[in-house]
Predict the 3D structure of the following.
Amino acid sequence: ASAPSSSAVDNGDTPSPVEPSDGASVVDVNPPRGTRDFPPEDMRLRTWLFDQFREVSRVMAFEEVDFPVLESEALFIRKAGEEITQQLYNFEDKGGRRVVLRPEITPSLARLVIKQGKSVSLPLKWFTIGQCWRYERMTRGRRREHYQWNMDIFGMPKVRAESELLQAIILLFERLGITSSDVGIRVSSRKVLQAVLNMYSIPEHLFTEVCVIVDKLGKLTREEIEKELISTGLSSEAVQGIIEVLSLKSLPKLEEVLGSDVEAVADLKKLFSFAEQYGYADWICFDASVVRGLAYYTGIVFEAFDREGKLRAICGGGRYDRLLSTFGSEDIPACGFGFGDAVIVELLKEKGLLPDLSRQIDDIVFPLDEELQGPASTVASSLRKKGRSVDLVEDKRLKWVFKHAERINASRLILVGKSEWERGMVRVKVLSTRDEFEVKAGELQ
Ligand SMILES: OCc1cccc(Br)n1
């Protein structure tokens, strides 16, 4: 299948408006920088991908919810220095309100759970697919919007929630034809880092900041990470201890270092044992360096990666048991993930897994001359009421109509001609077999 057209990827070029004869300049026909149009071919791919997201959400018994893309800025003001809150697409509206184009969906989910209050029975399992925004200096030419599939469970305190979410992600990959040799999911827990900070009696208030710094492992050099950690006031001994534990990729080793009574170890052992029973153990691996970059994670975190290491994280998520109290509400344990629509398409292209989604139409109805345009309307209307997709074509030469039928993969060509119509008939051409026959117009199926 052909890859989506270039419009799906912002080329960042500044177009030079064409000067037409009357001197007025043509509006810039490109979408705003960092955003994408979805012409039909790209839209078919996006619709197909979102249909896979929805089908997995259905089999996992999640309910669909939705929110405004516009949210109060207050929902995203966090002090931990996360990239996502430093790139808010924020502004003041005409009523003087501070608002944003949301950069993520989880805070909206939390807001709705709080708003629903006692009317929701727990645990609740919600999903949504929505556009998210960031305002990033275009120096890096990166996108400013993407669509994210989010699945979240509220009111399930145990690792069953994480293991359910991992199954959803893996079911999605399998539906797309991706295997565990293409993609892996790194799993850890922020409680690992919590345990290390406790070992060095590092104050609680540094936890979130340290997580955001450590999440840059792999993007910054080890020295840069150490420098940022020291700058928070950590001793070099604590910094070395953190880096050492976070480089662990073996759960038994982690148990040796932290002890088996540490919650992080118990949680992870439970999760990996569930994974065997779900049948997806070969997809996941323990990797202590996974902390994810969002301030509010409190427990198990995970991210999917392409094993060839060519792409950025495909999706990621984790447990966030104390997000609601940051909005002044009683806490409800929660866990969720976000799965963007861009990296996954890059992976499908890499793996030659883009589906063939060419356009398909059931019937073309074509009046052979002008006085038959009325009867052609009757024929098209009756077929559409029977659920057939009908392209009503007129004012074209028959040669063009046959070319068009090929282009849109029409199954049949229904010709409305004068002599046939006078006998109450129409002529049907089955384009795959070249069969041709007359049918009573009223009996056309
Ligand atoms: O995943 C970070 C993110 C958030 C909003 C928009 C885009 Br593009 N990327």
Notes: The first helix runs from residue 40 to 59.
